[in-house]
Specification:
Layout: H1 15-30, H2 45-55, E1 67-72, H3 75-96, H4 99-105, H5 116-119, E2 122-129, H6 142-159, E3 163-164, H7 173-178, E4 185-194, H8 210-213
Antiparallel strand pairs: 1-2, 2-4, 3-4
Length: 217
């Protein structure tokens, strides 16, 4: 079947505008940090929804768009999610985690306590759809597609003035159970969204220099 095509609308920028936008975006994203101390101040949920809309514009294998975003704001449900996440994380930190992993996390000050899951005014849980509504509806490059969408989401939220944290409790099966998602979906990311608490502190880390991550041939 020949796909339906339409003219592509593309704005070609001058080199000066390209440089200006690149520098502005770099400065903004360089300032982004993962926050574990959240304020309970309310946020504009419609802005959060629009950021999810941005994530849904990400490219995906065969345009299957294999993602579901669950926006959680109900306090009782956030409490349930926290309790379930802490149970899994405590078992991980106190038994399953290798010593090398714990040593790498040590300077960041993380442990199994996850109060931000209740304090942050909103949580977004990102699910990957292994297939569509029927067995015949195959999805392709699911992990890659959902990863790109999650990147869009984090960048959009930051650009709109929100703090976030990429939380990946291990394992994450409880998220699908508590949120009533079908077996064809698996949780890949739990993202608290809000504003930093007053006096919030973050680890003093450095990023790799360009020469360590960019190879030009």
């Amino acid at each position: 079947m020949t796909p339906t095509m339409k003219p592509h609308v593309f704005e070609r920028l001058s080199p000066e505008e390209q440089r200006s936008r690149a520098e502005a975006l770099f400065s903004s994203m360089k300032a982004r940090r993962s926050v574990r101390e959240f304020s309970d101040a309310p946020l504009e949920l419609e802005v959060v929804r629009r950021c999810i809309d941005v994530a849904a514009q990400a490219p995906s294998g065969a345009n299957k768009q294999p993602w579901t975003f669950v926006l959680v704001t109900e306090p009782a449900l956030k409490q349930q999610l926290r309790e379930a996440a802490e149970a899994e994380e405590r078992a991980f930190y106190e038994g399953r985690a290798p010593e090398s992993w714990l040593a790498d996390l040590g300077p960041l000050g993380t442990d199994w306590h996850k109060p931000f899951l209740e304090v942050a005014p909103a949580l977004i849980v990102v699910f990957a759809q292994n297939r569509g509504a029927t067995e015949a509806d195959r999805h392709y490059y699911v992990q890659e597609s959902v990863g790109i969408a999650a990147g869009f989401l984090i960048a959009a939220l930051h650009q709109c003035g929100f703090a976030t944290l990429t939380h990946t409790p291990s394992p994450m099966g409880f998220l699908g159970e508590l949120l009533g998602r079908p077996k064809t979906e698996r949780a890949v990311l739990l993202l608290p969204v809000g504003f930093p608490a007053q006096g919030c502190r973050v680890p003093a880390i450095e990023r790799k220099a360009r020469g360590e991550y960019l190879v030009e041939r």
